[in-house]
Amino acid sequence: MTVILAIESSCDETSVALIEDGHKILTNLVASQIKSHMRFGGVVPEVASRHHVEQISQLVNLALKEGKVNWKQIDAVAVTQGPGLVGALLVGVTAAKTLALIHNKPLIAVNHLAGHIYASQLQAPLQFPALALIVSGGHTELVYLENHLDFQVIGETQDDAVGEAYDKVGRILDLPYPAGKYLDQLAHQGQESYDVPRAMLHEDNLDFSFSGMKSAVMNLVHNAHQRGQTINQADLAASFQAAVVEILTSKVKTALEDHPNCQQFILAGGVAANSGLRAALTDLIQTNFSQIDLQIPPLSLCGDNAAMIGAVAYPMYLAKDFADLSINAIPSLDL
Ligand code: KG4
Ligand code: ZN
């Protein structure tokens, strides 16, 4: 039995988890800072770092208490090294290095995007080859895995991440930050009646572009205001969501056709909470790829959390892929 204490602080959630053998959650505490950033309409890096500093020690102590684990039973300390906000990452990395040093445990440096993919391992074992779609506030990537920790990025956004586009469109519609959830809810009350372009839909690659779609929605709102017309917010949300879902689903279909040996498809990241996307991808797999195992983590594990970092750290622990205590945060770390 291997118990890993994992820390995540890459953006606006401070989280500490205890994970047994890479899949069993002993505890997964998440302190969200959303309320502090809401009034600014986005994450303020300095505010995020300060909150992480205030939270981290208490969360470590609370996790040990709630997980009913003492330091003798912990085998390693894992932490998100990147990508993310440098100040925010540094708080987690510094805490993890200190704990590893004091308690004489190996340190494991984890990529946050790998974490989003491995969130699915907290509900079912990974099956290889696997294809993962990571959709979050900072990333939109299609990743192919031949085996554990063997990440091949086969498609990615050329500009905005899909969550970022949701948040920016939500801001134009005066929805609270982060707007993805509210825009998703609004989309269900409307009809697709506005024309939102499907960027890169017919291009012969697996890349995405969301900034043009976001600008198209902004222009629709702006032009309507200038003409003194009102916009039907629910219809606009439905039209934007339909365009986003169509693009993501179409690229996943192409990727699965390109990789016929795929055993599992994983939807990962904060935008995996999107009901339209979940429904469309479930339908795609059931209809066209019924032999593929579909994994969509529960909502609580789609957003940023430390349990997913502990899940990646387990195969790294088995491979003795340990980090030196001199490591630093890497804000633009690639998969
Ligand atoms: O993975 P995550 O928690 O943080 C990052 O690593 O970015 O993702 C946060 C993103 C935000 O942009 C948020 O608006 C979006 O996920 N999001 C959604 C939904 N729930 C959260 N986007 C669309 N529909 C949702 N239901
Ligand atoms: Zn994330």
From TrEMBL:
The keyword Iron applies. Its cofactor is Fe(2+). GO terms for biological process: proteolysis; tRNA threonylcarbamoyladenosine modification. Residues 24-310 form the Gcp-like domain. SUPFAM superfamilies: Actin-like ATPase domain. Fe cation binds at H112, H116, D304. Substrate binds at I134, V135, S136, G137, G138, D167, G180, D184, N274. Pfam families: TsaD. It is found in: Cytoplasm. GO terms for molecular function: iron ion binding; peptidase activity; tRNA N(6)-L-threonylcarbamoyladenine synthase activity. Its EC number is 2.3.1.234. HAMAP family: TsaD (MF_01445). Belongs to the KAE1 / TsaD family. Required for the formation of a threonylcarbamoyl group on adenosine at position 37 (t(6)A37) in tRNAs that read codons beginning with adenine. Is involved in the transfer of the threonylcarbamoyl moiety of threonylcarbamoyl-AMP (TC-AMP) to the N6 group of A37, together with TsaE and TsaB. TsaD likely plays a direct catalytic role in this reaction. This is tRNA N6-adenosine threonylcarbamoyltransferase. It comes from Eremococcus coleocola ACS-139-V-Col8. The lineage of its organism: Bacteria, Bacillati, Bacillota, Bacilli, Lactobacillales.
